[in-house]
Amino acid sequence: MPDSLEKLNEEFSDWLGRLAVEWAIPLEDVSPHLGKEEIADRVKCYPAFGQAVRQSPINMSDVEGTGGECWALGERFDRIRFREFCSNPDSADVVVSLVAHLPSDDDEAAQHIDTFVENCRSLGYQDPKTDGFNASSAGLLASTLLTAAFPKRFVDFRQTRWKEFADELSYRLFETESPSYGEMIVAAGTFAQKICGTETFQQSWPAGEPLWTIAGICWHAHSESGADRPKDAPLFPYEEDFDEGALVLRKHLIQERNTSLIQQAKDMWREADPQLRCDVCQFSFAERYGEIGEGYIEAHHTKPISTLKDGSRTRISDLAKVCANCHRMIHADGECREIEELRELLRSE
Ligand SMILES: [Zn+2]
Ligand SMILES: [Zn+2]
């Protein structure tokens, strides 16, 4: 894997880890829930929409009927404009030209898309009263037509959604300050293709049309406070009745299992101490259990998660390595005791 893909893989994996913490569910439960409904809608709607868009000769009432089903075009005003567009006799030529003559070169494709967006002005995307041209709505239309026709290359595009998603993964989406819609749509497609190439994505979402999956994830991830906790995500199976304290503790323990940072920390610890001894009591799983204990140690986050601000990054120096017993005692009664406090306790025995 090239470096940049390796980095994207890490960022994507960390982001899933952060969602697991936020939703207080195990990491392996994140991917079955993340973007689930958005993905299902794309799987349901895009095949028929794609057929209608590529049909020759094109039938705009088929395009309207199948496209109108897609959630991506589902906002009220987008839908009204789309209907007006489809009922205009000139729209067929414009769609055929977008799809049938799309260049394979990305820069040329961007210009080609910009021409389509410009053509939408006179096809329902310019408000006759205010004269305002709704380029973002026309861009969305272009991107959904392209997604339907070329599912391996494009994603349905709304600027804020993809921008926020890219920010979450520390990925620079646009090369220039004020890119055109064509450039943005091509860039979002490229970004989605890169995510598909990551190990984390391939392991977590092995089936399905990958770009529809990424788009579903991206659209789910966008909301006021980041990705909403899915309604059907498992509740907290280990606590029958939990209070705020138990929830905080659960988030803490999930955080300690999830991120790639934990893996890095373990690698670093092993270099300094091959036996991976507990920072509190010096217990070593490898020493006591032999081969099956090799490499086993738990990571404990010394700063309670409730004190961490949103988006603050964990550093390896914030983590302590502890055996399972000491870890239990650190958190007994929902507490988060200091390492030194437990050491003190053992010394005074
Ligand atoms: Zn210990
Ligand atoms: Zn802990």
Q: What labels describe this entry?
A:
single chain, 349 residues, 56% helix, two-stranded antiparallel sheet, 2% strand, 2 strands, binds zinc ion, mainly alpha
Please describe what this structure looks like.
The chain has 349 residues and is an all-alpha fold. It has helices spanning 3-23, 30-33, 36-54, 60-67, 76-87, 91-100, 106-119, 135-149, 159-168, 181-196, 199-204, 210-221, 244-258, 260-272, 285-289, 324-331, 339-347; strands spanning 298-301, 319-322. It has 17 helices and two strands. Helix 3 packs across helix 8 and helix 10 crosses helix 12. It is elongated and about 90 Å long. The protein starts with a helix and ends with a helix. One zinc ion is lined by residues 278, 280-281, 283, 322-323, 325-326.
Q: How many individual helices?
A: 17
In terms of DSSP E residues, the strand content is: under 5%
What are the distinct ligands in this entry? zinc ion
The strands making up the biggest β-sheet line up spatially as 1-2
Average the pLDDT over all residues and give the rounded result: 87
Structural class: mainly alpha
Overall radius of gyration: 25 Å
Helix amount: 55-70%
